[in-house]
Amino acid sequence: MKQRYLNGMLIVLSGLVFFFSADSSEAKEKSEAKLRFAISFTEDKSKEPLDGRVLFMISTDDSREPRFQINDGANTQLIFGIDVDGLKPGDTAVIDASVFGYPVRSISEIPSGEYWIQALLHLYETFHRADGHTVKLPMDRGEGQHWNRAPGNIYSTPQKVLLDPQKDEVINITLDNTIPPIPEPKDSKYIKHIKIQSKLLTEFWGRPMHLGAVVLLPEGFDEHPEARYPLVINHGHFPYSFSGFREIPPDPDLTPTYSARFNLEGYNKIVQEHTYQFYKDWTGPDFPRVLVIKIQHANPYYDDSYAVNSENLGPYGDAITYELIPHIEKEFRGIGKGWARFLYGGSTGGWEALAVQVLYPEDYNGCWAACPDPIDFRAYTIVNIYDDENAYYVGSKWKRTPRPGRRDYLGKVSATLEEMNHRELVLGTKSRSGDQWDIWEAVYSPVGKDGYPKRIWDKMTGEIDHAVAEYWRENYDLRYIMQRDWKTLGPKLKGKVRIYCGDMDNYYLNNAVYLTEEFLESTTDPYYDGEVDYGDRAEHCWNGDHDRPNATSRLRYHQMFIPRIVERIEKSAPAGADLKSWRY
What we know:
Helix content: 25-40%
Number of domains: 3
Number of strands: 28
Number of helices: 13
């Protein structure tokens, strides 16, 4: 026994020697890698020092600019990033072997060869918030928080170069282009664009902050000035205008394009056909006459705010419900009562629809939440943030099994949680990537000492902070909140909650729906009296349509849900409610 123990210790020690040797060799190799990229801009781009995130892309694909080739899929190209504070004209930001990258962690690991390279500076603005914190963040500039096309960002012309990571060489890159402003969308007979300055958000952020909306007016709006309309909020990502509504027939000369997501040739033609069909349905004699809006609430962290109050984003929930919506109802003759307001959406919009209904239960009369972002954090996609120790790897004494992040309907995995989060970490530190995991963190987390969101887990290692998880549970875990408060909340939500999800959702969002359904179906005082439904082998974003594939059902949210909203009105409207002026 003693000899076996000694032999085992020798094996372990030799393994440790190898580990440290390998680690030391890797560090030595990186320190000896001499290739570096010096990125700068000239005074014609800015005479003032600039703050932001310098992003550097390397690509083997010449089909488009490298800045448009970074993603979670297998075809992603390489990206590296560093923060800059007060970078002056002519000064350089240096990308070398020590800079963290995705999916390759260091330029020292890149094989020698010819590559396309490009750099970009994602600009940050300084905010002096009402909570006393000063933070630097990328304000949205009308593009919906996309670093690679945000107006004002400066970037370099792509160039083809021969790279040798071990060569002692400096490659100079000048940011010689500026992304131009985005033109304002135009109104039409049916589509109107509005913007208001929010008093609540302006006070929080310490500078003027606005909310916008795209309003779809019903047929006969001008001809029926006596009509007062129910309001339908279609929650979702930043809308430039009212997508899904086409007032002219499909383009007969449109060149068909292939959709890899749906494996369909000519999907762009299918989209035009369905959006024109909605226009015909909307203006037809039998379609319900209601107001439909899409909200524009892009902010310094993401393309929308998740429509709730947040320590890091400010009181967006109150601003939308008590400032923006009353303004719209006043301007466009909305009924202006909770019984006549409804919510629907998918994915981000699905979470928002349910969250707003739960947190403002008497201000809205029903939600149709499709493929919602995690609504129970015991299934935060595939992580239980309360019980698991690490988000990226399954807990095990002997194994290190990575958690999947994205799959298809057959279960084929294309990205892990670690890869997805590391891409965001390259795009921005301190939850500033403008992407999915970071916005969940920005919305749900308390503010850290530095003024930025407290991490739910270490972005590099995946180690979960359970104190932050507890804050999430009490404030944003929708299933937990409903269960905790059902005695008083249940009567206000009865008949208002409907949830739909594919059972092969690409991001495992069905897991949280199962847990939420388990609670809802067990409620008895009162019974929730709603609906939870699943699509067989359906991916993201299934919305309850059992007759059509995802590719087309996702184009029919309005036709599906608005007639059901009218049914809800007829069933639940209070005595004396206006059920006639808008029924022409």
